[in-house]
Structures are given as structure tokens and as C-alpha cells.
Design goal:
This is TetR family transcriptional regulator. With 192 residues, the protein is mainly alpha-helical. The chain has helices at residues 9-23, 30-37, 41-48, 51-75, 83-97, 105-110, 118-142, 148-168, 173-190.
Length: 192
């Protein structure tokens, strides 16, 4: 019979998530994960199967703890008209102040070899779909005059600006902010 885990799995996943987010999957070695989590290699492999297994859980933690709470506000049936604009202001603030892990864990992963992994690629596609669904709801909350097709087209443009801003956040915060400002301008034009 195997040993019972004597560590806080959620805290371990969060520490690993922060490390993957700061350094990227490929640049994060198992000894880095050992230092960050306080667990030995054997414990990490026993609990998560592999570095990739830990990364997969870290990605789910990122989505559940950081992304989905923001998107849920837009999908709420009683979402305020400025909910989408508030999202972009929050992301803009993060780009300007976050030094440890700016941008997005998933967008960063998409542009590295781990992004080609079928499981990771599916999660990234699902992330895009979640953004599009939430932004479409946010556009509808801001402007009831638009048809469903018009709302979706505007949401697609906003998703593109968001994704490009998150991709640029690490290397060029000023360009990321410019894209977020363009998204905010589009949000202002939506208001009924």
C-alpha cells in the first residue's frame, strides 16, 4: 500500500503554477520545482506522475483561480454594461504592475514546444472559447442593440486584442497596454 500524501496538494500546485508562469514550462527544471514546493522529486512524481502532470494541474489551477472568476462576471445574467471594460482595466493594471509573472500562463505556453502537446493544445483552445463566450456576453451586456452576429464579431476582435496584449506583456508592456487601450476604446463605443 502506498504512502498517504502528507502535503497540501493545492498549495503545491499553486507554487508550481507560479513557477511555470514566471519561467515557462521548458525553463522550469524538476530541481526548481523541488525548491518551490518543498517536495522531493520522488514525491512530485508519485503525486503528479511527471513534470507534465504537475503542469496540467497548474494550468487547471490557473484557469479556476485566475481566469474563470473574471470571466464569470461577464457571463452573469445581470452583468453591468461596463463589466467588459472593467475586465480590460484590470488586465491593464496587471500588465503595468505585475513583475513576477506578467501576461498569461496559457498564452506563454502556446508559443513554446509544450503548446504542441495535444492536452495543452486542447486546454488553450478551450481557453479561447471561454474568452469568446464571456466577451460575447460582455458585449451584449454593454449594447443590447447589436445582433448576435454583431456581438460575436466584436467579441472576436476584443479576444484578439486581449490575447495579443497578454502575449506582449512580458516583452513589451507598452505595446500590451496599447492593445488594451484599444480594447477599452472599443468597449466605450459599445455602450447603448
Amino acid at each position: 500500500m502506498g504512502r498517504t500524501a502528507t502535503f497540501d496538494r493545492q498549495a503545491t500546485v499553486e507554487r508550481a503554477r507560479d513557477l511555470f508562469w514566471a519561467q515557462g514550462y521548458d525553463a522550469t527544471a524538476v530541481p526548481d520545482l523541488e525548491r518551490a514546493t518543498g517536495l522531493k522529486r520522488s514525491s512530485l512524481y508519485h503525486a503528479f506522475g511527471s513534470k507534465k502532470g504537475l503542469f496540467d494541474e497548474a494550468v487547471q489551477s490557473y484557469l479556476n483561480d485566475r481566469v474563470r472568476p473574471l470571466l464569470a462576471q461577464m457571463k452573469d445574467a445581470d452583468a453591468a454594461p461596463d463589466t467588459l471594460a472593467r475586465y480590460f482595466k484590470k488586465v491593464r493594471g496587471g500588465v503595468l504592475t505585475e513583475k513576477v509573472h506578467p501576461g498569461c500562463l496559457l498564452i506563454a505556453a502556446a508559443n513554446t514546444p509544450i503548446g504542441a502537446d495535444p492536452v495543452v493544445a486542447d486546454v488553450i483552445t478551450g481557453y479561447y472559447d471561454e474568452l469568446l463566450e464571456a466577451f460575447t456576453a460582455g458585449v451584449r451586456a454593454a449594447s443590447s442593440k447589436l445582433s448576435e452576429e454583431q456581438a460575436r464579431a466584436r467579441a472576436q476582435a476584443l479576444v484578439a486584442l486581449n490575447v495579443s496584449a497578454l502575449a506582449l506583456a512580458r516583452t513589451s508592456p507598452s505595446l500590451a497596454v496599447a492593445n488594451l487601450d484599444a480594447a477599452l476604446s472599443l468597449c466605450e463605443q459599445l455602450e447603448d
